[in-house]
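Second opinion, please. Please look over this fold, written as tokens:

===
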Amino acid sequence: MSLRGSVAIVAGASGAIGTATCYALAAEGATVVFASLDDAMLQALVKKATDERMAHLAVPTDLRKREDVDRLVRTTLERFGKIDILINAAGIGSAPAMCDSSDAELEDVLAINLLGAARLMHAVLPAMKARGRGSIVNVGSIAGEAGVMGIYSASKFGLRGLNDSVRREVKSFGINVSLIEPGFIRTPMNAQMTNALPGPEVVAKAIIDAIRRPRRTRIIPPNYILPTLIARSFPRLTDAVFGDARIQKRLNRDARAARSANAAEQS
């Protein structure tokens, strides 16, 4: 699939992965629709895109609101007459431990990571089906393969199931649906990790590859493939490892420290 002249919506455009994806799509000749909260990060992205003469349209969007999702799709169709590509790259994290999350946090993670992606697919599919073509790429996580990250894992497990279901539903309409599952990537979500992490550009490249050569699922970077296969094949081993109190303490240590620091700053 050639991307030149295509119209692509990127949900979560102002995030690390979203921004890298916007620039990767623009480099391929696509017109990119930025869908993100109306904040300083979106304004910075718009300024840079304008300065670099990127073909773009910014539509401030809160994925927790169905009316925003519908307005995003309607505005894109009114402006360009088509939607060729949808990238669901919006996402927020959670504490690894369920008990560390508030009810509001539980709701926001599901509303953005899962329901937001579902609503966007629900909104764009009629236009794609009418044209008999389209490409959807959902950004999941290896946390959707092994349940170790509280409500975040639940949202990504759900997205994986939704991705499979929608892929099968729309295959006969010429619409391709792929899932990219990154491991730890250098983004603000993983700011507390001190070891070297690959940048969001590796995810953007995988997204472009998935548009050109659709595939069910791709895990990146490749070094996460073997651990994922082990988690799938030997669930008792995964239970034993992550059920250990010492592992749980280590898993939650950084998240709890970051939460305490944020609370101290706000007090």
Summary: The mean pLDDT is 91. The radius of gyration is 18 Å.
